[in-house]
Amino acid sequence: QVQLVESGGGLVQAGGSLRLSCAASRSISSFNAVGWYRQAPGKQRELVTTSTSGGTTHYADSVKGRFTISRDNAKNTVYLQMNSLQPEDTAVYYCSADLSWRLYWGRGTQVTVSS
User: Are 25 and 12 in contact (CB under 8 A)?
Assistant: First the structure.
């Protein structure tokens, strides 16, 4: 019903930046919320940021001031701008979308930050 495809991951040095994209198969304005999660090796998946249709945005404390979520409704795409990346940001990053209170996931994109 909903497909999400992430892109933009890669290898970057500490202090660098990346922008992740999440292309949705339907209008993102139809979602209750969109967000980004990440999962590092050996760790549980954790919330990075969410953005609701009402305009409320939440960030994990570990990324506040460094990461920014944004939307392009015309392109049905959600972005995650990541600045001042640190080795502890290394993880697979997943896009999520809440549609009718069901959560959909992309397959993820790998982000690796070298020290």
Answer: no
Question: With 90 as the cut, is the pLDDT of residue 1 above it?
Answer: no
Please report, as a single letter, which amino acid is at residue 92: V
CA-CA distances (angstroms) from residue 37 to 13, 72, 74?
21, 19, 23
Q: How many CB atoms lie within 10 A of CB 60?
A: 15
Percent of the residues in the chain that have a pLDDT greater than 70, as a whole number = 100
* pLDDT given for residue 101 in this prediction: 85
Q: How far apart are CA 80 and CA 8, in angstroms?
A: 9
Q: What are the structure tokens assigned to 113, written together?
A: 């930050």
Q: Please report the pLDDT score of residue 40 as a whole number.
A: 97
Q: Which residues of 19-58 are buried (b: 16+ CB within 10 A; e: fewer)?
A: ebbbbbeeebeebebbbbbbeeeeeeeeebbbbeeeeeee
CA 22/CA 7 separation, integer angstroms: 7
